[in-house]
Amino acid sequence: xxxxxxxxxxxxxxxxxxxxxxxxxxxxxxxxxxxxxxxxxxxxxxxxxxxxxxxxxxxxxxxxxxxxxxxxxxxxxxxxxxxxxxxxxxxxxxxxxxxxxxxxxxxxxxxxxxxxxxxxxxxxxxxxxxxxxxxxxxxxxxxxxxxxxxxxxxxxxxxxxxxxxxxxxxxxxxxxxxxxxxxxxxxxxxxxxxxxxxxxxxxxxxxxxxxxxxxxxxxxxxxxxxxxxxxxxxxxxxxxxxxxxxxxxxxxxxxxxxxxxxx
Amino acid sequence: xxxxxxxxxxxxxxxxxxxxxxxxxxxxxxxxxxxxxxxxxxxxxxxxxxxxxxxxxxxxxxxxxxxxxxxxxxxxxxxxxxxxxxxxxxxxxxxxxxxxxxxxxxxxxxxxxxxxxxxxxxxxxxxxxxxxxxxxxxxxxxxxxxxxxxxxxxxxxxxxxxxxxxxxxxxxxxxxxxxxxxxxxxxxxxxxxxxxxxxxxxxxxxxxxxxxxxxxxxxxxxxxxxxxxxxxxxxxxxxxxxxxxxxxxxxxxxxxxxxxxxxxxxxxxxxxxxxxxxxxxxxxxxxxxxxxxxxxxxxxxxxxx
Lengths: 263, 305
Known about the structure:
Chain A has about 260 residues and is mainly α. Chain A contains ten helices and no strands. Helix content of chain A is about 70%, strand content about 0%. In chain B, the strands form three sheets. Chain B has a six-stranded mixed beta sheet, with helices on both faces. Chain B has about 300 residues and is of the alpha/beta class. Chains A and B meet through helix 1 and helix 5 of A and helix 1, strand 6, helix 2, helix 3 and helix 5 of B.
């Protein structure tokens, strides 16, 4: 190594490179690192497995029983919106940042002149995109397979899955920033709260992303075809409030993130 | 001129004080942060790198506070101790991503130059997960150098490296220091620091124990009282001959162990005295061993000094 020349000795401040980093909602490099990390880890298999399962089930139901709106609603509401969308949100939302914080590689992102808010926003877009790709789009297509968008069920549940993807991504990204047990916490929320308590205990539904999203689905579908425990205005306000609040809190926590040392 | 300044910095975690009222200045050239494991070196480096807020005091780079100031990273390169990187990327993709995150005008050229500086071009196309420890360390270095920072912070960079990799990295850091960069690295191994650093800061149990040129610190370390355990054919006669010389400060005859415990104050003189006295008195030396050469005892002496 001794014979090679050193890099140009120019450790002085370079003109035109000072001043605060511009506020930005997106950084392409952060996005690339995030989606490559999401899709290269083993848990990414779940991302493919869940929608594949839904589409197989929809095809089988249609082939065996024919087009039936009741069965379509049961599958789209009970499995797609209540289980698949939140689970995908957990994988994409926590996976977009949690592993980097756990193993310390987040240092390479944070030791750069990039605003922490830019890091969070970019990771949020990626988590949303992945969640929609692997849950909302399959939900729409399985609706088409089940009953050919009768009563606008396919479109309404597709729209519900899209808005639920947005909220879940923000919530689970925040969990990924604040706790090392983000996946467990996310699974408990997704499976116990949303899928079980949300559908059994009437009051709990008011605080369920799934019910807020259903309020929108009820508006899109034919009257009476889809019902929600919350009204549309309340559902929309809560969706926006939770998404914005979770994102703001995630930015604030990442700004103060302490990187643990091994000592 | 780029200077890192710690001003009365303390950091505690709950009830544990990791860093206790440390004030020091790190300027251009290579500085070694020396101390036993758990002394607080990583905590200090994390505060200098902006990954940890001081509980009290300030950490600044040329007057600018480092904590929560991502602009300082235009001037700082960080080589963390932890192994984790984006293992699914190739070495080149990883360094390129770092260049892009710095907003460099020509990220690809910068990435190639940094990889060439650490001599990793030959493996740049391989995924990081296939790299050895030394290769990882070099790619970490490349990622920290890609924007040609004025300050380079390295946490235990030699850990787990084989001797050849160690020499290569030392040579590289020496060059960085000679270029006028401020290079700070931590280590718990005296010889590493001595070979590389022109300036040493010693940290023991969270406190700043010593600071200065390595020769001064080496002298402090060699001038401290040394303890030896000596076994000979006539311990009693040897003891009486040794105590007559001013290089010996204390003697103890351990009859149970059948050994002589000697405390020497003048290291150089004592090492010449002992064999001469033995020969003159016809005493055979069976064993001469230092009894307190552990690094911890060296450090605790420095703290007391």
